[in-house]
Design goal:
Layout: H1 9-25, E1 29-30, E2 37-43, E3 46-52, E4 57-59, E5 62-70, E6 75-82, H2 85-89, E7 94-95, E8 99-100, H3 105-118, H4 120-123
Antiparallel strand pairs: 1-4, 2-3, 4-5, 5-6, 6-7, 6-8
Helix pairs in contact: 1-3
Length: 124
């Protein structure tokens, strides 16, 4: 059950679309590796499960996909990453540091640039 009164599932998915566009601006290339996969988010008093249809992107020698974490106060976005196709296919990608869903475009771009600079998996 969607736990928020101030943001809808549709608004969150639209923000994920923006994050994907920004990833492509930074050099990520869409792949056909992604398959719909169940996403379950749990937190203090928060529980939501749905089927995600997010694109998997190649960035350098790694793969990434936009995902979410639901916290009590509001949802956060994360970028999942993997170094191998098998990790994508097995849905065992690792989450990067979360950032609030309601950041503006320039703030999200700064978060993504920092993430890409810090995580050597993205640049190997």
């Amino acid at each position: 059950m969607w736990p928020y009164q101030t943001v809808t599932r549709q608004q969150l998915e639209k923000k994920k679309d923006l994050v994907e566009r920004l990833l492509m601006r930074l050099g990520a290339v869409p792949t056909d590796l992604g398959t719909p996969h169940p996403v379950s988010s749990y937190g203090a008093g928060v529980e939501e499960t749905f089927l995600s249809h997010r694109t998997v992107y190649r960035f350098g020698d790694s793969f990434c996909r936009v995902d979410e974490l639901l916290f009590r106060e509001k949802p956060f976005l994360v970028v999942e990453c993997a170094g191998r196709e098998e990790e994508v296919q097995n849905n065992t990608m690792e989450d990067t540091g979360p950032f609030p869903w309601d950041l503006g475009e320039e703030e999200i771009l700064a978060e993504l640039r920092e993430l890409l600079a810090e995580d050597e998996k993205w640049t190997s």
